[in-house]
Amino acid sequence: MAVYSGMLDFEIAFAYVFANLLSLPLWYSLLAKKNSIKSLIIQYQKINSLQKKSLPNRDAIINFAFAFCISIPVIAVTCCAAWISTDEVMKNCYGFFLPFQENFAAVLLRFCVLLLVFTSQHIFPNSAAIICTVLYFKFSDLFNVFYEELQDLRGEYVNHYLMHSKMKQHTLLFRVAYELQDATSVICFLFLCSRMALMYFTLATFMLQPEGISPANAWEMMPVVVAAPLSIIFLTICCSMITAKIKNCVTTLQEIQTDKALKDKTEKETLRCLESMLSKRFPLISACNVVILDLRLNFTVFGSLFTYGLLFLSLKK
User: Fold this and answer.
1) 287 φ, ψ to 5°?
2) How far apart are CA 29 and CA 25, in angstroms?
3) Transmembrane residues, as ranges (predicted)?
4) How would you class 232 by CB atoms within 10 Å of its CB: exposed for 0-12, middle for 13-18, buried for 19 or more?
5) I need a labelling partner for 142 at 20 to 30 A (CA). Which of 175, 207, 215, 267 fits?
């Protein structure tokens, strides 16, 4: 309706609708992987019980992340609803183009619509990203503890019973790495698609408005400007932590194998255990095998946004 009345460009309206519709497959993918995520939690507890060293308590960080994920859109909704009467386009769009007088009922209707839109557009996708981020964060701790325990074995006599125990942990970690990739791959892919679509939409809206943006429009953009980049950055950081810990474990196992191979008294069964662990290839955590979730992804995403912005600047001239 806003397109037909000339209030919005078709391209901007299409990008906005597309970004919102991506929340639907994201919801179904999260629902489909619910049992896999539960299985990962059970595997996490099982592996943790086999490890001698205790894991650090990350509950405060996780609680802060969830609170931040919810508070930013809620604050933006409240402020946007307070300022929306100053923006005629937004007032009509979020009021369903109904001829409301500016009273409490009209403000309440627009607030409810804004809250529903922001829940679908920001709160739920960011919550899904936090679930994946927490999984990466927690399992990186498991790999880190395993790495520290391997470091303790260097320079010590290791019998095959102890090495069998380490191989059991290694096998569980190897299995859970593939389960983690399978459980989070589609979720991360849809999340990245929705965030990138929203960021491109926001950039296009900002650059293509010659009269500037209203306060309500600025508050509408705030979750995209603040929460979306941070959620992508935190996701890739926690995922890259797993990759780094796996590399550390492999390097340490290679060093232990070299040390034990140089000693004549090393049991052959111990060397077989080491060879078995080194023969396993851990997966690279990715989003549907399209992009690898590492720190380089941040440069790709934000670099493309920067290039996109320069393109808009050249078009405006």
Assistant:
1) -100, 95
2) 6
3) 12-31, 60-84, 104-121, 183-203, 224-244, 297-315
4) buried
5) 267
